[in-house]
Amino acid sequence: MEIVLSIICIVLLVVVIYLLYTTQMKLHEKMAETQANSSSLDRQYNSIITMLNDASTSLGQSDTKINQMINDMHDINVIMTNTKKRGTFGEYQLYHILSLYCGDNSHIFESQYHLSNGKIGDAALHLPGNTKVLIIDSKFPMENYLKIVDNPKDVVYHNEFKKNVKKHIDDISSKYITEETLEEAVMFIPSEAIYLYLCDECADLYDYAHNKKVLMTSPSTLMGVVFTLINITKDFNRSENIKEIEQRIIKLKEDTNRLDERYDRVMKNLGSLEKSLKELEISKNKISKTINQAYDGAIEEE
Q1: Angle between helices 142-150 and 2-81 (to 10 degrees)
Q2: How many CB atoms lie within 10 A of CB 94?
């Protein structure tokens, strides 16, 4: 009986040891798996932190760009809402267009042109065959136009805008049409949007401007006017200097004929020189042959 109990105890002990061993192995596996998961979580966490830092940097750069854009828009707004600066912007556009087509040529246009009545036009075009000038002045009726944009159905703002434009037309007509100028002047509106609004909604102002001898233009229409005047100036200058041009063409023809004669003479001399070179080569070859034969002691009869 004791032997049986001993065997049972031994078996139970073995079972307990086996169970402890398997449990320990499973614990080791779980710990290893947990460590692996922990390492993976650490990597993911670090990756997320890196992404957040990158996103924060990008947002910071975006904020900087947005702030820069806001500052730029603020600068533009300052220009557009400040009457003096807005006028300067209009003059800049005007000078840019004139310089583009006329270059820096004071014989064609001048900026800040002084008249004897004390008035100063933004620009003056010199026309061919005429001592009088065509004055161009920039006007930028922006404030009332912006009110119309914000309140398109408000008739009061529309009427104020027309009144404002009429005043500009009257100012140009009274200041820049004198004995020193042509009987017309140009009003430059440096905004296509305002110009189109005038065309669509204020057509009667064109009749008013026409009666006042004022031509209203936008950047695109002014280009057409300037381009046409420049071509007229070139055609006039050519017609005025036609005799001088003819004389220069005749002289150029004479120079061309003289060049042809000299070319033919040089080519003839080159032909003679080529013939002389060939004869010289023949003589040289004969002398070389005779010297070589004499040196070798093998004289050939000629």
Answers
A1: 130
A2: 23
**Do 120 and 199 belong to one domain?**
yes
Q: What are 15's two structure tokens?
A: 């079972």
pLDDT digit string, tens, across residues 238-269: 766 667 766 777 777 777 878 778 877 877 77
Chain-centroid distance of CA 230 in Å reads 24
Give the pLDDT band (50/70/90) at residue 231: confident
The interaxial angle of helices 142-150 and 192-201, nearest 10 deg, is 70
DSSP state, residue 190: S
In the sheet that holds 109-114, the strands lie side by side as 109-114, 120-126, 133-138, 185-188, 214-217
* Mean pLDDT of all residues belonging to the chain: 75
One-letter amino acid of 278: K
Which residue reads 């204020």 in tokens? 202
Q: Which residue has the tokens 């040289």?
A: 284
Asked if residue 235 and residue 99 are part of one domain, the reply reads: yes
pLDDT digits (tens, 9 = 90+) for 66-80: 555 544 444 444 444
- DSSP state letter for 183: S
Q: Would you give the DSSP letter of residue 73?
A: H
> What is d(CA 58, CA 62) in angstroms, rounded to the nearest whole number?
6
On whether both 216 and 278 belong to a single domain, the answer is no
Q: Last residue of a domain, which of 221, 240, 259?
A: 240
Q: Which residues constitute the domain of residue 192? A: 90-240
* Same domain as 140, residue 106: yes
Instruction: Please name which of 167, 170, 181, 178 lies closest in space to residue 214, comparing C-alpha atoms.
Output: 170
CA separation for the pair 201, 249 (Å, rounded): 55
Q: Which two tokens stand for residue 39?
A: 């390492």
pLDDT at 172: 92
Taking the C-alpha atoms of residue 214 and residue 189, their distance in angstroms, rounded to an integer, is 12
